[in-house]
Amino acid sequence: MDGHSPPAIVNISDVEIIAPNFKKRLSGVTSTIIQLIPVQRALGEKIAALGPGLPASLPHIRFCDLPKLWRAPRGRSFRIWHARRNIEMLPAILMRDVLRMPLKIVFTSASQRRHTGWTKWLISKMDAVIATSGKTANYLEVPSTVVLHGIDTTRFSPAADKAASKRALGLDETKKIAGCFGRVRHQKGTDLFVDSMIRLLPARPDWIAIVAGRATAQHLEFEKELKVRVTTAGLADRILFVGEHTNINDWYRTLDLFIAPQRWEGFGLTPLEAMATAVPVVATDVGAFPELLVTGSDETGVIVPRDDLIAMVEASGLFMDDDNRRQQASTRARTHAMNSFSIEGEARKLGGVYRSL
């Protein structure tokens, strides 16, 4: 817990769903739990978190409450334990099958690789399995329900005045902006974005580019090499490395095109965040990206092969050169994100899985 406010401890007898978080470091899974629980509770789910690394304000139970799981919650014959990691499945299996606590176990899988024998065994013991994408479901050997992640479409929403949004962040309001947001590292394809911009910007003086995100210690040399590459190309004032920001939604509002150049991704929320902010997207065919974007006549963006610089340059250039196409894709992107990828929609689908048990 963060320790800056009184812990929001709830009575275990009123909790029907437990969302364990057994990893202290912030991760995508932890972020999902933090964002979902308040929405789930607003929709009437009696859910609470368990574990370290979570805001004190998040409704939670304590480890000392676990012996009380022998008694079912009021009005129910069992509780649901919603695990997202192996270390969260195992104790639930022990509590349900060895200690005979009245539990049903749900597991959400985000992995896009073959599971180990140990993980397969754990998953085989689940009462229900959720996959975060169709690609993830293909790696499972048990029936699953696909529930794609959603985002806060209020936080990630279009700027009322894009020029003012650019000015507020010290950017040139007369320029159109292409952006790439996320950790700066080879896996994320930051170099592909930079190389694309080095090829595209010289012939497009009305465009600049932004790289927003942090390079961790082992990737600092990679970031340094990219900055040298940009300086050598004479584009240091047009390809900007702006670092990591907690108000990343404000940075999305400055964009006219978003590029997701990842070489590998488990799911990948950045295209959703861009589309919710009414920004068209060029993304590689990794993670859930092909399931997030609409391509073709009703496009919200374009999918290109991963690690294909030429395809990325071509797709990005066509968007940059066609204001009308960008505007139409922008409008459709916002509508698509609102209709299909709101976090409220994700919470409702999870509720459907709970009720199926």
Please give the structural blueprint.
Layout: E1 17-20, H1 28-42, E2 47-50, E3 79-83, H2 86-98, E4 103-109, H3 117-124, E5 128-131, H4 134-138, E6 145-146, H5 162-168, E7 176-181, H6 190-200, E8 207-212, H7 220-232, E9 239-243, H8 248-252, E10 257-260, H9 270-276, E11 281-284, H10 289-292, E12 301-304, H11 309-320, H12 323-340, H13 343-356
Parallel strand pairs: 1-2, 1-3, 3-4, 4-5, 5-6, 7-8, 7-10, 8-9, 10-11, 11-12
Helix pairs in contact: 1-13, 6-11, 9-12
Overall description:
The chain is an alpha/beta fold. It has two domains: 12-150 and 343-356, Rossmann fold; 162-340, Rossmann fold (3-Layer(aba) Sandwich), CATH 3.40.50. The protein is built from 13 helices and twelve strands. The strands form two sheets. The protein has a six-stranded parallel sheet with strand order 2-1-3-4-5-6, sandwiched between helices. A six-stranded parallel sheet has the order 9-8-7-10-11-12, sandwiched between helices. The radius of gyration is 22 Å and the shape is elongated. The two termini are 31 Å apart. The model has no long low-confidence stretch (mean pLDDT 94).
